[in-house]
Amino acid sequence: MINVGxxxxxxxxxxxxxxxxxxxxxxxxxxxxxxxxxxFTPT
Length: 43
Known about the structure:
The protein has 43 residues and is mostly beta strands. The chain has strands at residues 12-15, 18-21.
């Protein structure tokens, strides 16, 4: 579990724009991680 204010571990995601690693943005851009349930599913 990660608490607010802690450093996120490095991870890799695939998207329609390619593969991205969190570490490739370190020191260059601000990154906001947002998680939400799948669309059209009961929450």
